[in-house]
Amino acid sequence: QVQLVESGGGLVQTGGSLRLSCATSGRTFSTYVMAWFRQAPGKEREFVATITWSGGSTYYANSVKGRFTVSRDNAKNTVYLQMNSLKPEDTAVYYCAAGATRLLATKNSEYYYWGQGTQVTVSS
Known about the structure:
This protein is an all-beta fold. The chain is built from no helices and eleven strands. Strand 4 and strand 5 form a beta hairpin.
């Protein structure tokens, strides 16, 4: 069983930065494709970023490209999402996901394991 626990969310002003962390349990963390998704009120959960098991390849949604950076530390079983130049439209609950078998997977249904989410609120 794999458990994912997100942290680092909070309230920030427009233009500010936050770094989210996703701590995982499970001996095979280093083999998982990991991703971040987000869900704003009244909207469907959407893809944000993904990273391959080695960290060598990443892929981002167009809405965050150039502002967000996903990374991972396999020694710490943790994946990160550095969010810069935040905008009010980035306000959402951010979820960490793991377990996709397709590299750079972007669909909810491709991920087997999910965290509980962390709230990010960007004030204007």
